[in-house]
Amino acid sequence: MNFMNYARPCYTLSMPSAMGQGVIGHGIVVKLLERWAQAPSFSYVFTGPAHVGKRFLAERFVRVLAGCSPEQDLAVHPDVVAFELEEGKKEISVKSVRENRSRLYQSPQIASRLVAFIPRMDRLNEEGFNALLKVMEEPPANAVFVSVAANVARIPATILSRSVQIPLGLVPQNEIVEALLQNGMPKAEAEKRALAARGRPGLALTQDDSLSVFRPLAESWVAAQSVGQRLNAIDKLRQVCESQEDAAAAWHDALQACSEAVRASFVAMPVKAVILGQGIADALAAIGGSVGPRLMLEASAVQVARQRLPQPSLYPKIFPHSLCI
User: What is the DSSP secondary structure assignment for residue 149, as one 8-state letter?
Assistant: First the structure.
């Protein structure tokens, strides 16, 4: 189940409810979650780019479902069953899933239901997904699953088909500015942070610049004078992305840095910028897929050498908001 057409950011910040408190953007999603909390489905999966508020909103939904306050620690709530990564591990083991599975068939202690929270669902291994699927095939009567996934392509279709997918998009800049102003930030600083955040409230709040490591490589990719130089820059981008804990999020940041570099070059080389921009769009759509973003960028490098835009592919063209050309 997917409500992609309805999960667009809302331009209204007046959300006094417990569900919407502290949430920047995603107003329509918040309203839907408020209604779903009264009669929830069995499973929800929050997806979207890094730093847009997936986990924050999912945790808020868990709290509402479990009837606990924003200050209460979810880790000690008796009716919240968390599927977390073990220390030093990169995947959630099947052992952890099986241990939590037995708890889900028990009765809640203080809430009206049990809530299974999987904040990194895309970190389950194959055995873990199979064990989780067994629960979903015979769902506990009093349990609701709330999951977060940065790389939705890793989740089996058999699990997604049993879940309500909640895709979160980038938040309009004016909403981020307004939220920062309401938090007491000076207007000039709020506007600067919102612009640098590129639609991702988490970056505006922390002032982290996740693109700094990618900008020199992105500039080399755009300025390359030959196919070989451009392919070398792409390979370096790949190496950095794959060295990160969350490769999918790293690719999003890398492509955002590439879009900045393309935008800066548009006046000097408009044809090249358009071709590279289309390559970025294809690469964004390929994150987490079988083809991968690297191949899409390499294809655009060849097309730049030919000075020719490729024919439309089956991938949706989702241009980054920061790519204004």
Answer: E
The answer to whether the pTM exceeds 0.85 is: no
74 pLDDT tier (thresholds 50, 70, 90):
confident
Residue 261, domain member (yes or no)? yes
| Of 11-15, 119-123, 214-218, the least confident | 11-15
Q: Are 252 and 200 contained in the same domain? A: no
Is residue 19 in some structural domain? no
Domain range for residue 190? 173-206
The total domain count for the chain is 3
Same-domain status, 32 and 153: yes
